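Sample entry follows:

_____
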Amino acid sequence: MNSPESITSLPERPDDERRRRVVNYSIAMGIRVVCVILCVFVSGWWLVLPILGAVVLPYVAVVLANVHTRRTGTIDVPGQFALEPASSAHIPRAPDEAAR
């Protein structure tokens, strides 16, 4: 008999993960808007900082928003076999490819 699954070992719910990613992206884009506004008010060499922020932050925001959490462990479903997380699931090969 399997022991009950610990709540701390379960993967993050997809809705929660999506919400966290949207919040992180929104915060980064908010900082970018502040950088664009600062470009109007800052002069001299200090202007380089908000320009760099406005140019680099979209890339960083997209990369951070698309980072998936690492799902560890297996999920036991009563009456079925254990499911492995999608990131570590093994995709079986066709019989002719396995012989190569």
